[in-house]
Amino acid sequence: MPTLTLIDGSSYLYRAFHALPPLTNAHGEPTGALFGIVNMLRTTMKAGSDYVAFVCDAPGRTFRDDLYAEYKANRPSMPDDLRAQVEPMMKIVGALGFPILCVPGVEADDVIGTLARQASAAGIDTVISTGDKDFAQLVGGDIILINTMTNTTMDTDGVIAKFGVRPGQIVDYLTLVGDSIDNVPGVEKCGPKTAAKWLAEYADLDALIAHADKIGGKIGENLRAAIPRLPLSRELVTIRTDVPLELGPKDLAMRPRDVEALRELYARYDFKAALKDLDNGTEPSAAASAPVAAVAAPATALVSPDVFSGPGEYEVVLTEDRLAAWLEKLETAPLIAFDTETTSIDAMLAEVVGVSLAVEAGKACYIPVAHDYPGAPAQLSREHVLGALKPVLEDPSRPKVGQHGKYDINVLSHYGIAVQGLAHDTMLESYIYNATATRHDMDSLAQRYLGYTTVKYEEICGKGAKQISFSQVDIETAGKYAAEDADITLRLHQALWPRLEAEPSLRAVYTDIEIPVVPVLAKMERTGVLIDANELRLQSQELGKRMLELQQKAYAAAGHEFNLDSPKQLQAVLFDELGLPAKVKTPTGQPSTNEEALEALADSHELPRLVLDYRGLAKLRSTYTDKLAGIVNPRTGRVHTSYHQGAVATGRISSSDPNLQNIPVRTEEGRRIRQAFVAPPGWRIVAADYSQIELRIMAHLSGDEGLVRAFAEGGDVHRATAAEVFGVPPDEVTTNQRRAAKAINFGLMYGMSAFGLARQLGVDRGEASDYMARYFSRFAGVRAFMDATRDKAHQEGYVETLFGRRLYLENLKSRNQALRAGAERAAINAPMQGTAADIIKRAMLAVTRWMGERDDVRLLMQVHDELVFEVREDAVTEVKKVIEASMSGAAELSVPLQVEVGEGKNWDEAH
DNA sequence: TGTAAACCGTAC
DNA sequence: GACGTACGGTTTACAC
């Protein structure tokens, strides 16, 4: 049968825009969405189709707007960066030879719906290429959907599998669920599951409405209340299949492409691969291609189809011969992608179950070594396989690439393998390329950069209580999954590395900082820190006793018992029962019970103070004393945190399980927890922290004379600031003046406003404005720097650190005032926070290089501006000096980098 | 039983 | 609306 492909242009334009980093060409014009669209179209052409149309929305009102004034009222207007890409997109689509359909008065959806039905009647198979789930209502017979973003096609069975209803029921389903983006009201609290349940029982919306009184509970009430609105919603979500069109399916043949126009457009927007194909004559041309069943069309890659061209050949290695064959391949490989499969996501507990390897795209193997289930085939032994791989993995001259290689390094370390030569890590490549994208896991990266949907771990092992160990997974299934991991890692590297290489400053941050930091963090995690669990348990008991007393007093003050841990119940007691005034509101408009609110009420009633005290103790116990005592590794007697290198957009490292970067320090009570972080007998804890590092960076980056001088003189910078702002000699600065100056210094780095400063200091807004004005008149360079940073952010779309780390700001052009202001504050803060992160990472590298193989110093923790070590007693004096020098020397700024080093038997003493 | 959202609080 | 970056504990609501 002949085939018709209908491309939902608007859907792809938006999706490509949001899925891709904000790329620009040499002229600074945005090209990210274009890039995605062009790749999508080129692969669509390779698939071939007799008839094809690129359908998009025409400007102006449609019948839906006339039906319902609020239709799409929630939809944000098109971002400028996207709008700028629409016209070039149309030019490229036209030059490629695609018929373009933009019909005024109806939406693209209705044009697609009408053409699909007409094609169906004419005996033509139709593929609708879209990312929009609403099209499921058209599926059936000879109409199917393809989503090039997720690599999936959807026929009738697919619709049932995904939505739990038949295609004919999709309209009713969408009516019940509603659509918050298009502002179509549904039934309140009715989600996908409820809608599918109801439609399974009553077949359609009319029958459901007829039996609405049978639905119980709150949700039944919601349904009955929604009934009057439902017919309108139904009309809004129904895709029309009968709009008048001037062209029919058979008018939609590809036209000849305009090679010269394409060449110019590709060159202008920097699409090198497409340009190369054009010059080689390998650019796909749908007009010439034979009709191919579109249903079987190969999955379309959103990006870099040249790098990725479908699933590869994967082998499960079970014999000595095959292992030898792979070892031989490794010998000549310029780069080896490797991955381990294990029994736990916690590297400290994980046992290796198998290893996967890839040396060229599309060819990978999985070597199972410990799969254990009834009927499992005989496997090579773990000892043997790891022994065979050890020389390769430990050879620094044999480059390797991993995805989150730190994990594999730690797992393998457990078997005496000291991995060296991790030259690349795709997680970090993605992180440095665009840190704004919050997810850098392999599944997300494969989707984003290869347009490929990977097999998910959960699909193999399940999740929650039903999760099984990877060792119990069938070897064939495991092999496909695991080999794919290595394969995709290699392909991701091939897609990402050229992009990094093209940006020297990003490449430098990646090569000189992030990659070398990986083994340093791995070692810190393995080393862990010694915890005095008994001390913590004692503290827990004591805290519990005091909490109980406070609890009883609080009940008496409230007049009855309630859950002190529940903000909601506390709110009812304070504001409803006791009638206290609600001065602070939560973001959702509720009266807040946070510290600031309770502090404000403390003079009116005794309860707020009791709650404040209780909360202070509860926090310490639940988050720290109980938690830390319970997380000590029984094998090592120490606590092993996880550090995350790709989690913080500004370049900082974060820590979890447990988070060692928010251990209390400000109160005496909290510091007792640090006393439980101890040195082993014969050792000392040495803690070294940068003094005012971010403020020093602000002085350096801004070059402000006053601030630079204040640091050069080496005194108390907040006092010096206060002296300038208040026009008094430094030794006459009052406590309050210094406090105000300190608040200004910190606030500035966070982009704080006069309003925020007033709130912080408890003064009125006029006074706060006055302080800031005086600050800026004295430190004019700081203001100029901030203005310049903001301008750069707006012009380039990103800001950068001293070392070239880049941060894109997504919301800088948002029409939403709050989002935009937030992005501007982030833009101001990122260069300082990020440069500090770069500097301490450089310091970690310097210290590590100095430590070499010596066994009397261990780096234990990194807390943003502080490094904590364990040092053997006889080496402490020497080591302190070296640490101080390494950290101070980690960057050359126009102000000195001051480091304070202390020692003690525990972390608290070392401060 | 599991998950997500809201609220709160710790660190730098 | 108003101060940047994280992680995480408890409660609550809700779906399975």
UniProtKB/TrEMBL annotation:
Pfam families given in the database record: 5_3_exonuc, 5_3_exonuc_N, DNA_pol_A, DNA_pol_A_exo1
SMART domains (UniProt xref): 35EXOc, 53EXOc, HhH2, POLAc
Keyword Transferase appears in the UniProt entry: yes
Gene3D superfamilies: 3.30.70.370, 5' to 3' exonuclease, C-terminal subdomain, 5'-nuclease, Ribonuclease H-like superfamily/Ribonuclease H, Taq DNA Polymerase, Chain T, domain 4
Ranges for domain DNA-directed DNA polymerase family A palm: 670-875
Signal peptide: none
Cited NCBIfam families: pola, PRK05755.1
Name of the protein described by the UniProt record: DNA polymerase I
Organism for this UniProt entry: Luteibacter yeojuensis
